[in-house]
Write a structure and sequence with these properties.
The chain is an alpha+beta fold. Helix content is 16%, strand content 31%.
């Protein structure tokens, strides 16, 4: 199964054709304008199942979709008034799509801590808006604390396991502030249960024409 996550930086109706070149089974896209504005004709023809999450007053939300003849089944977990977390099942696997807003890693720590028992076999993937380099900004709910929480349920960061790199020392950058090459950070992650067979990769820098994030490709 191929899963692609991408923070599209808005305007997804004009960017759909670029991300589907990855020919994924499942797409998780952040910062998507209201689903009623997604009037891309190819999207309407291709998509077989979708789920969209947006909170009142927000102009952008989190979209999950597939072009395969397989259903996306939403899971109704309490969000405890935190944005944006979307749990769902697809092809007999459980996913938690994340586009972190508001308190970033602090909310992620709380949300996953509240639902820890449900996450044992869950793949977490998304824009966490976080890195251990900012641990000092977050008190007792830092990215390092989140990594310990994930380790308690035997989850690993796919990128760090594959690359052997330490957190905060990533050579693969995923986000370029204002789309500037000299403002790079690693803030997009996939956490998978230990023992999962996977390969993780990222889209090329030409995607900076369309977004400040590179797509993340997780092959399971």
């Amino acid at each position: 199964m191929r899963v692609v996550f991408w923070n599209c930086n808005g305007g997804f109706r004009n960017k759909y054709q670029y991300i589907t070149k990855f020919d994924a089974d499942l797409y998780i896209i952040a910062e998507v304008e209201g689903i009623d504005k997604l009037n891309n004709e190819q999207f309407k023809r291709d998509v077989q199942s979708e789920q969209y999450l947006a909170f009142p007053g927000d102009k952008k939300g989190l979209l999950v979709f597939t072009c395969r003849n397989e259903p996306i089944e939403p899971l109704h977990w309490d969000n405890y008034r935190m944005r944006y977390f979307m749990p769902f099942k697809f092809m007999n696997k459980t996913f938690l799509g994340i586009w972190s807003k508001d308190n970033y890693i602090e909310d992620i720590y709380l949300y996953t801590g509240f639902h820890l028992e449900k996450l044992a076999d869950t793949i977490l993937i998304g824009d966490l808006n976080s890195n251990v380099i900012w641990d000092s900004h977050h008190g007792y709910r830092t990215h390092s604390d989140f990594n310990e929480l994930m380790a308690s349920i035997k989850h690993i960061s796919a990128y760090h396991d594959q690359s052997g790199e330490k957190f905060g020392k990533e050579t693969q950058l995923t986000f370029f502030m204002y789309r500037k090459i000299n403002r790079p950070y690693h803030i997009d992650y996939a956490y998978v249960p230990k023992g999962t067979q996977f390969e993780i990769s990222f889209g090329s820098s030409h995607f900076l024409e369309y977004s400040d994030h590179l797509p993340m490709v997780l092959d399971l």
